[in-house]
Amino acid sequence: MELAIKVQNLTKNFEDVTAVDHINFEVKKGEIFGFLGPNGAGKTTTIRILTGLLKPDEGTASIVGYDVLRNPIEAKQCIGVVPEVSNAYIDLSAWENLNLIGKLYGVSTHRLQENATKLLKDFGLYEVKNKLVRGFSKGMKQKLLLCMALVNDPEVLFLDEPTSGLDVESARLLREKVTQYNKEGNTVFLSTHNMEEANQLCHRTAIINHGKIAAIDTPENLRVQSMELQHIEVLFDKQVNLEEISKHPNINEASFAGNRVRVYTANPSAVIEFLVDFAKRKGIRILSLNTMMPSLEDVFIKLIKEKEASPV
Amino acid sequence: MSRLAEQFRRSFVIAKKNIKIYYSKGPVIIFGLVFPLFLALAYVIGRNIPLKEVLPGLIGMTTFFTATSVGPSIVPWETRSKTLERLLCCPVALWTIIFGDMVSSFLFGLAISIIPIIYVLTLNIELLNFTVLLFSLIIANFCFSALSVLLSAYPPTDIPATSQMLSSLVKFPLVFISGVFIPVEQLPEWGRIIASLSPLTYFTDLTRQLILEKGYYPLALDLLMIVIFTVIFSLAAIKLHEKTLTKRLT
Question: Domains, chain A, ranges and CATH?
Answer without folding.
Answer: 3-222 (3.40.50.300), 231-292 (3.30.70)
